[in-house]
Specification:
2 copies of one chain form a homodimer. Chain A has 551 residues and is mostly helical. Among the domains of chain A are: 104 residues; 184 residues, Orthogonal Bundle (Neurolysin, domain 3), CATH 1.10.1370. Chain A has 24 helices and 3 strands. A 3-stranded mixed sheet of chain A has the order 1-3-2. In chain A, a hairpin with a 2-residue loop joins strand 2 and strand 3. In chain A, helix 2 packs antiparallel against helix 3, helix 9 runs antiparallel to helix 10 and helix 13 packs across helix 22. Chain A starts with 12 loop residues before the first helix and ends with a helix. Chains A and B meet through helix 2, helix 3 and helix 7 of A and helix 2, helix 3 and helix 7 of B.
Chain lengths: 551, 551
């Protein structure tokens, strides 16, 4: 079963010049599809590694992934692909010949080609080597709660990220960051060779949230901070919690599993095009929109964790399964950004599964599933709703509720931005972290293990990633509000377990849109008529928790 | 995570000439290892397809496998690999510089390189296209029990196999077949361009059983036929069967599963380096010796099927897990042949699990596992042994016992050899099949569905494959006899469930030997001091079943 696309020799630019736009585009997509198949394989191998793989296979799996990455990189940076993209760039008649999805494929593949070709192989290798050492150091440091053991690796990560950004700026793939940097240099009277990292965060952010501007992020986050810090303080001062004994205690894992499968299927997860399994850290991955692999985890004495994890990942999975079928296997069918992806998981987790209509429908099923839990039988949907919506400031981001979660993200955003742009030093991180934790959530961090060492992101160079969690929740509120306005009686539908109406609206308005637009903000604007706006999110949280806590 | 081996430009032959043998060998193995990683990935994808994959992913998985096959083929036929092999072939000092395993790696990779490069791409594509159409036609034909619907596809398979053999003969990768062909032409007074397919079966056989001679196969098979046909007739004439009610009836699948996992682990399957799951057709595959994936299947009312399947696949898995660690990821560590692989599954399935010592140990565990089966509690190991060793001629190969199984294989061997070499026509197959079934097993085939259409092999061009099943059983008997002579009190060990002593002997004497030798017969000779010999096998079957059936 040979594929011809790879064996064809690169055509000369003269030969390409005589071909039609359509022919060039078809040759391009044949290559993009092969690349997509390899990416799908990599996704499957990674799922298997987390869910199925026996422990001794770790080294051989790493070898396989590394060889595969090498093959992908070869294909991604091949001169054949480069010549096709170059020739297409020359053509004046592109938009006459191609539709907007096809144009987006050219835009996206050109960007990836540039990004993959502009980094020197040595830097990529150094990066991979650093990551594996750095993760080990972080694990050790966290175990001993000793930031100093991780600090040198964090410094190396910052250095390598700065080098990457510098190459990208030179290569012309992050214009927004370059502009910010030039402006800063000018205002500070610095030359091109002087050290100045202003704008670097913008570049890193765009690795995860393409097209989104850092200064808009600052506006959104500062509004959230201004409104949520007092809201959290008010809830804390109330010193009251609803009874949540009926989400705790003994919940048989097998029965939880059945229940999770039932609910995710009812929400719209297509089990003929995906699987739900168990892993230590829940995630959604897989090989293709027809082959989505999601995981959750169950705790015997906490019902909320398993079902919430399942519904969150179901949101991600619906996005994946709902991707554009006409442009399958090409870049335009891929998710627009991490933030938009997160909006789909959070929309189902928070807007739906933390709502009263959802529990009106679901609670009777739950009582049926756990007939032995006598305490459950008399509970009302309102009580279950209150139990699920408990707000309690804590040290750990991944355990946070929807009100305090943004503060965890904003704290990280402020620190990582300052770090990359040179406003603070690595050694400043723990003290700054603890001060902000005190200011935003009123908590005293006594150990770095539950402070600045809790997350793995920085250990693998994921700086610019954290904001997408909270962008996701802002997107989610705004998208859900639009859906509610567009779908008559949505709440009534949800209260009857009629989820497809919402799923289909999201399929059409979000999932099938893929990467057609250049940023999540553009998608939101086209969808809602407004730019992304934190005020709706603040109002949602304030109204909801004022009622729950009787503030 | 870039790999450097693939990005390196091909060196000129002058440059290579100045390098040491060791350096050339190291460059070769770096490439062989990358190829092996891709093969491992393909193995994992195929396991996933049978065991985990959701149904709608069939098309995307086919795309992924096809792209991967293309990448492997590119790598396998690259000029870099070709130049390295060519340069190594020139060197006079190879055996002074390299050890026998390393020399085997050169021999094996040269052979694969030749085989992969000598077929024209068009033929490979035509073959893949034929296979997918042919399988569909076979499924239809079997459903309707109508051979004529499959016949044209079988003819196409024969034609394409003949073309492949002709290319291989020209390319010098099947010398034995070429010699037979030349001799036949000479004796028939034919020129080089006359049609003559003598020796073609030899070439096909060697795709699965390298180095094994077809004329030796004929001798072995004719001896088996001569001895087993009367043995089978004698058993049939006896018209007696031992009670096997205690392997039938209700065996809870969950409990069977636990039992299978327990036994396979006790035999020596390393669950940290592999998995046991369920699939429609049991198989052993996976990604690496550290990542072996085997499957079985359970039937609620037949205990024998599940446990036998598990033990058979455990035998295959022990071979895979036991492969040479020093030469991991290179060709010499791979299994020598399909027949030798099958010998390992059959040794455990028949020599061990169909023996009295095994049931002496296992029956008490079985009684414990199924305490509700009162009928089991009084059964003796002897009775269980008799029940498991029932002989009953039947139409279906995969359901056959060890006495009648060889006749199914010999029948197919005789037909497929005659077909490929032009002694019969496709249209002759059903009548010939039915006549042989009558002659060897005394059965009247009334429907092609349970006759010549029962197996999928011919539909995907697997001609030359069937003999390896029976070669496997002859190897198994001879290897087990040698193990028994080498291991003091082996039967006593097995009767106490002490399986590691046998497993470790096989690890050392078979598994770690890999593809060091050029044929299974060479391995047998080095191991036992004798060539492969059907008389031991005949004696084993005759003695065993004379006792069981009191002949």
């Amino acid at each position: 079963m040979l594929r011809s696309t790879m064996t064809v020799l690169a055509k000369s630019s003269t030969e390409l010049r005589s071909e039609s736009v359509r022919s060039l585009y078809d040759q391009l997509t044949a290559r993009l599809k092969d690349l997509n198949h390899l990416n799908g394989i990599s996704g499957l191998l990674q799922w298997d590694q987390e869910v199925m793989m026996p422990s001794k296979a770790a080294a051989s799996r790493a070898d396989q992934l590394s060889t595969l990455a090498g093959v992908s990189h070869e294909m991604q940076t091949s001169s054949t692909l480069g010549s096709l993209l170059e020739e297409l760039e020359q053509r004046q008649d592109l938009s006459a010949e191609l539709n907007p999805y096809e144009l987006a494929n050219i835009r996206l593949s050109r960007k990836t080609y540039k990004e993959e070709t502009l980094l020197p192989v040595e830097l990529v290798k150094a990066n991979a080597a650093l990551n594996s050492k750095s993760v080990g150091a972080w694990v050790e440091a966290r175990k001993e709660s000793d930031f100093s053991k991780f600090a040198p690796f964090l410094q190396d990560q910052v250095n390598i990220l700065r080098q990457k950004v510098a190459y990208k700026m030179k290569g012309g793939v992050c214009e927004e960051a370059r502009k910010i940097n030039e402006k800063a240099r000018a205002s500070l009277g610095l030359t091109e060779t002087d050290e100045c990292y202003k704008g670097y965060y913008q570049a890193l952010l765009n690795d995860y949230e393409p097209g989104f501007k850092d200064d808009r992020l600052q506006v959104l986050f500062s509004d959230l901070k201004q409104n949520l810090v007092p809201l959290i303080a008010k809830i804390k001062a109330k010193n009251f919690q609803h009874d949540n004994s009926y989400i705790e205690g003994d919940f048989d894992v097998k029965k939880q599993t059945e229940f999770s499968h039932r609910i995710s299927k009812q929400i719209g997860f297509d089990t003929d095009a995906g699987r739900l399994d168990v892993s230590t850290h829940p995630f959604t991955g897989g090989a293709h929109p027809t082959d989505v692999r999601m995981t959750t985890r169950y705790t015997i004495n906490n019902f909320q964790e398993g079902i919430t994890g399942t519904i969150h990942e179901t949101g991600h999975s619906l996005y994946e399964q709902g991707r554009n079928k006409e442009f399958v296997d090409t870049p335009v069918s891929q998710a627009l950004s991490l933030g938009v992806h997160e909006s789909q998981s959070l929309l189902w987790e928070r807007m739906v599964a933390l709502s009263k209509p959802f529990w009106t429908y679901t609670l009777p099923l739950l009582k049926e599933q756990f007939p032995d839990r006598e305490d459950l039988q008399a509970v009302t949907p309102e009580q279950y709703y209150n139990a699920f919506n408990r707000v309690e400031p804590g040290f750990i981001r991944i355990e946070a509720d929807e009100v305090t979660y943004p503060m965890h993200v904003i704290l990280r955003y402020e620190i990582e931005k300052a770090l990359v742009e040179g406003d603070i030093q690595v050694a400043d991180v723990p003290a700054l972290w603890n001060a902000k934790m005190k200011e935003y959530l009123g908590l005293e961090v006594t150990e770095d293990r539950i402070g600045c060492l809790q997350d793995t992101h920085w250990a693998v160079g994921l700086i610019g990633y954290f904001p997408t969690y909270t962008l996701g929740s802002i997107y989610a509120v705004q998208i859900f509000a639009t859906a509610k306005a567009a779908i008559p009686n949505l709440d009534e539908n949800l209260a009857k377990g009629e989820f497809p109406v919402l799923k289909e609206w999201l399929n059409k308005n979000v999932h099938e849109q893929g990467s057609l637009r250049e940023s999540g903000d553009d998608l939101i604007f086209d969808l809602t008529g407004k730019h992304l706006d934190s005020s709706l999110y603040v109002k949602y949280l304030t109204d909801k928790y004022t009622a729950i806590y009787d503030l």
